[in-house]
Structure formats: structure tokens, C-alpha cells
Amino acid sequence: MLRKVSYLFILFVLFTATAMAQSADEIIAKNLEARGGKDKISAIKTVKFTGKLIVPSQGLEAPVLQQTKRPSSVRLSIDIQGKSFVQAYDGQTGWQLNPFSGSPDAQKMSEEETNEIKSQADFEGLFVNYKEKGNTVELLGKEDLEGSPVYKLKVTEKSGDTTVYYFDADSYLEIKNTSKTKVQGTEIEIDTFSADYKEVNGVLFPHTYEQKVKGTATTQITISKIETNIEIEDSLFKMPSK
Predict the structure, then answer these.
(1) Of 102, 122, 129, 220, which is the most exposed, with the fewest CB atoms less than 10 Å away?
(2) For residue 159, what are the CA distances in angstroms to 28, 30, 175?
(3) How many domains does the chain divide into?
């Protein structure tokens, strides 16, 4: 009798896990459709974001520019006091140029920093073809987020990094994600809120991002212009030689 109960219990667990996986895939599919559909998203080869970075605690406002190109290149530039802070990834090497560090030369990123910027270079995001990318997805359930019902999906990347995403239960658009990063050796949890979705060439993009740590806003980005499928040279993403 015990063997029979154990067997039935195992079947129940396997069935539940399969059902959850199917539900997660269904939410991912609806998110893609809400954004414009996989075909339209896949047709985008380059994206250029122009906007403004705001750091409330420092009273700082600075122009920000991000350029992304398939298959996996990204460059972020922030102009501060007439100098450009740059972070980039060319598909192999992550590097940054920090004029306030005391060195005028570009420096290679750490492995952890490189893993973070790789995610920014992923056009479709971590969910599309997640199995082929070596990621796993887990449906954590449904709950209320500031009065709105949301689905929670946890992504574990091939690198081991995890992020929890919150999708609006009505629109299926992402409205928040929670991740962890290290700042000066200390691990902190960051909430990133996405809002103000607008259509650009048939695909919805958020035009406002806000990051919070322990409920306090740390940075905000407002995007004034998004351009897709424009010419961007590969050399822009390469680490400058000394």
C-alpha cells in the first residue's frame, strides 16, 4: 500500500510540475503577442534608445544613449559633466570606460559585470527560446502588485543568475523585475519598474524605467526616442585599444 501511495504521489508531483511549465510557457507566449508578436520582434536587427538618466539622491540628470545590434552587441553611454561613461559588449568582451576612475583607458569588465551586460544585449529577452539559451523558467504564481493582479515568473540563467518577472495579468506586459547584484562587494536586491509602453514599428517598448532599492528610487530613465533597424557599425561595440 505504501508503495502505491508513493507512486501516486510521484505522479502528482510530475503532473503539477508539467502543468506549471505549460502555464509559464503560455504566459511567455501571451507576453510576446502583447508586445507585437515574435515575427515582428525577430525582424528588429538594431535598436537605438535616446533619453535621460535621473539620479534623485544626487540631483543628477544626464543624457543617456543605448545602442543594440544583433546577435549580441550593446553599448550604453551616459554623458556627465561633459564626459562620457561607457559600458559595452561586442558578443565576446565586456568593457567600460569610466573617465571618473582616474584612468582614460577602457577596462575589461569582471565576469559578473559581463554576465549582466549580456542580458541587455538579448533582443527578445531571457524568455524567448529560453531552453536553447540554457535558461530555466518557473511560474511562482499569481498575486497583487500595488493593487493589480500579476503573474510571477522566475528565470534562472545559464550563468546561475536569477530574476523574478512580474507580468500584468490583463495586458501580459512586464511591469517589474527583481534581480540581485553586488555593489562594492555587498549583494543588493534591485526592483526595476517598466511603464509607458509605446508602439515603435509595430512593437511595444517601455519608455520609462525606475529602479528601487528597499523601496527608495535610485535611478530613473525616461526615453524620448526609439529607433529600430538603423545602421550601426560593429566597431562601435569593440573595446578601444590603448
Answers:
(1) 102
(2) 21, 26, 24
(3) 1
